[in-house]
Amino acid sequence: MKKAIGIFILFFLLQASLHAQQYNDFFLDKACRVDFHLCGNAQQTSVFLDNIKLEPFWGGRHAHLSKDLNLGDYRFRVLDSLSSQQIYCDGFSALYREWQSTPEASITSKSFEQTIQFPFPKKAITLIIEKRIDLDNWSELFRYKLSPTDKLIQRTNPTAFPVKIITKTVSSDKAIDIAVIAEGYSAKEQKKFYRDAQRLAENLLTHEPFTKYRSRINIYAVAARSVDSGISLSKDSTWKNTSAGSHFYTFYEPRYLTTTNVFKVRDLAALVPYDAIYVLANTSTYGGGGIYNNYALTAADNNLVTQVTVHEFGHSFAGLADEYFHDKQDALDAMYDIKKEPWEPNITSLVQFERKWKAQLQEGIAVPTPVTEENKTKIGVFEGGGYLAKGMYRPMFDCRMRTNKAPEFCTICQQAVERMILFLTE
Question: Where do the domains of the chain lie, and which CATH numbers do they carry?
Fold first, then answer.
């Protein structure tokens, strides 16, 4: 037994050494941030470069660098220019992609800010940005050769704001680092923001699987100051001058709270190492939003803040889809094509169901699964999800990704979150 344990430890140390060697061969312990614009309409998408920055902290993973979890509407790949070896890869989503499914996108064109971040390269690299076609295929949108010695890479430090450590349990390379950013808090409301950020952390860490892995989670509160207190309510023509410029009524949906000022958000997040960004809005109005590998945004003072906090982070951190649907028309009704398998781990069109939770169904469970009292506690295939009442299916009758009444993520969603935590920290 001692010999077996010794072999295991040796293997673990060897793997850790290989990971470190790969990282140190190609990257510095700083971040390369690439700002660009996603432009087009319902039928077309283009990428236009805006700026490249060297940022002081890299909070992301140090292992699994050349792999990803096949999540997101887009992905980017970093290739070593000399060998063409893929040395980093990651997926992401964008508010632009959601806008493309709205009626407005069929009659006009728009540009949306977008940012990606990867460890700063030691040598010249080729950056490729791709758009998802289906579950396994991608279309190239952009290719750029980047030299780390380029004199036009910005090396200015981000504008300083006070930062408070809410919880820090482990070094960044082994942690999920979350930057919580103040939105709509005036200079006099700094203490309120810190209290709200503490409550957000408590809400998150009391839900599984974050509770199980709380020793791997660091949370920082970035006290960005806004000129005005509160959040813009565009439906009522009330506009505020705030740090991230967020507003309700995104795509004319009253509760959808987002910001298109992605560059501002990333400027603020750059004050700390981060894997994930949470923008905390100083308002009691119900609402929020979450975009995978981009940001989560939620109201700080609504009486459903606990539920919304966790729901939106499910989107932005683990790429979970909304499991709810409406009988009336929804702004995002056209987000999913039921003839294709969606990439999100918690919904399926059954086109490639074997790639989702099919193997976890109990023997004899019906597909689709009828709603009975017995089936409500089982993993099944319940119709309705991704804003669609028909043709899209979710794994359990209820889940935090479906309703605020659900106490937790369902089993499949918990597994997806856990998979992301392990991917980023091991």
Answer: 25-146 (2.60.40.3250), 163-319 (3.40.390.10)
pLDDT digits (tens, 9 = 90+) for 90-116: 999 999 999 999 999 999 999 999 999
Name the H helices within 60-189. Answer: 95-100
Structural contact between residues 277 and 264, judged by C-beta atoms closer than 8 angstroms = no
Question: What is the per-residue pLDDT for 255?
Answer: 94
> Residue 142: which of 40, 276, 65, 56 has the closest Cα?
40
Q: At what angle do helices 411-425 and 305-318 cross, to 10 degrees?
A: 60
Burial (CB count within 10 angstroms: exposed 0-12, middle 13-18, buried 19+), residue 48? exposed
Q: Within its chain, how far is the Cα of 330 from the centroid?
A: 22
* Positive/negative CA dihedral, 265, 267, 268, 273: positive
Query: Dihedral (C-alpha) 68, 71, 75, 81: value to the nearest 10 degrees?
Result: 10
Helix (H, G, I), strand (E, B) or coil at 235: helix
Give 207-226 pLDDT, tens digit per residue: 999 999 999 999 999 999 99
Got the DSSP string for 6-71?
Answer: HHHHHHHHHHHHHHHHHHHHHEEEEEEEEEEEEEE-SS-EEEEEEEEEEES---S-SSSTT---S-
Please report, in angstroms and rounded to a whole number, the separation of the first and last CA atoms in the chain. Answer: 25
